[in-house]
DNA sequence: ATCCCGAGGG
DNA sequence: CCCTCTGGAT
């Protein structure tokens, strides 16, 4: 058995984290429109914050067409607590306009199209595909996924695009969505940026970082 | 003080 | 590769 056996990694993380529970808050959005906007807003902030502002946002702008015609200033006021409010407000309005005009009001369900929307990078697109369409097309590389992948020794690259290539090569497609969520939870709770809790980590025996720093 | 379930631009 | 945009949580 290879030390990077995907089954080993996913099985051990599954035994530690309940993914269905932690995703609940994020999955409650009714349709792809809500999921897309909420995901764009969720950059660098918490789910709780996004849940609060989207309540008012979606009450006032229930679909792409209403948001496409929204006044920038009004949107900024509503989403202010999420941070980066100016950029985010411009982006969600511009993205709605693009969806309304070029995609007939339907949120695109493919990576190439989603990434064309302002404010949507590969990370956001992956989450929208996974949550709104159940079509995970890759592994969304955020800081947690990046840190864990490099510590375990799954990749030597530091650039997100290349890390994603390495990970999608190591893990079979049906694991992508789950690996994503599990790595993020593990990164927040155990494999933290500073002072990782290696003593309670059940991956330490196959971790390069642990071998080189903690043994 | 430091970090976050980022994106866009230089 | 670097920087900036922002607020909130810890």
Helices and strands, in order, run as HHHHHHHHHHHHH
How many domains comprise the coordinates?
Answer: 2
Output the structural class.
mainly alpha
Backbone shape: elongated
CATH class of the largest domain: Mainly Alpha
**Largest sheet composition:** none
pLDDT averaged residue by residue: 86
Report the radius of gyration as a whole number of Å.
19 Å
Low-pLDDT stretches: none
CATH superfamily of the largest domain: Hypothetical protein, domain 2
Strand content: under 5%
Helix content: 55-70%
CATH architecture of the largest domain: Orthogonal Bundle
Q: Total strand count, please? A: 0
Q: Tally the helices: what do you get? A: 13
**What is the CATH topology descriptor of the largest domain?**
Endonuclease III, domain 1
Intertermini distance: 22 Å
Any overview of this molecule?
The chain has 215 residues and is mostly helical. The chain has helices spanning 6-16, 19-27, 32-41, 47-60, 64-68, 72-79, 85-102, 111-114, 122-133, 143-152, 160-170, 176-189, 208-213. It folds into two domains: 6-17 and 139-213, Endonuclease Iii, domain 2; 31-133, Hypothetical protein, domain 2 (Endonuclease III, domain 1). It contains 13 helices and no strands. The structure holds a DNA duplex (10 and 10 nucleotides).
Please give a quick description of this structure.
It is an enzyme of class 4 (lyase). The protein has helices spanning 6-16, 19-27, 32-41, 47-60, 64-68, 72-79, 85-102, 111-114, 122-133, 143-152, 160-170, 176-189, 208-213. By secondary structure, it is mainly α.
């Amino acid at each position: 058995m290879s030390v990077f056996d995907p089954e080993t990694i996913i099985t051990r993380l599954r035994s530690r984290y309940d993914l269905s529970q932690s995703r609940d808050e994020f999955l409650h959005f009714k349709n792809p429109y809500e999921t897309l906007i909420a995901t764009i807003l969720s950059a660098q902030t918490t789910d709780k914050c996004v849940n609060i502002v989207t309540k008012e946002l979606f009450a006032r702008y229930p679909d792409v067409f209403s948001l496409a015609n929204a006044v920038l200033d009004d949107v900024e006021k509503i989403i202010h607590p999420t941070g980066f409010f100016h950029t985010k407000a411009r982006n969600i309005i511009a993205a709605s306009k693009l969806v309304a005009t070029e995609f007939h009001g339907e949120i695109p369900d493919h990576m190439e199209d989603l990434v064309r929307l302002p404010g949507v990078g590969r990370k956001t697109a992956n989450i929208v595909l996974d949550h709104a369409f159940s079509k995970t097309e890759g592994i969304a590389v955020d800081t947690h996924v990046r840190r864990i992948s490099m510590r375990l020794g799954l990749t030597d690259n530091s650039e997100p695009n290349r890390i994603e290539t390495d990970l999608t090569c190591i893990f079979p497609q049906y694991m992508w969505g789950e690996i994503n969520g599990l790595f993020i939870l593990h990164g927040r709770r155990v494999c933290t940026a500073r002072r990782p809790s290696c003593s309670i980590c059940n991956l330490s025996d196959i971790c390069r970082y642990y071998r080189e720093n903690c043994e």
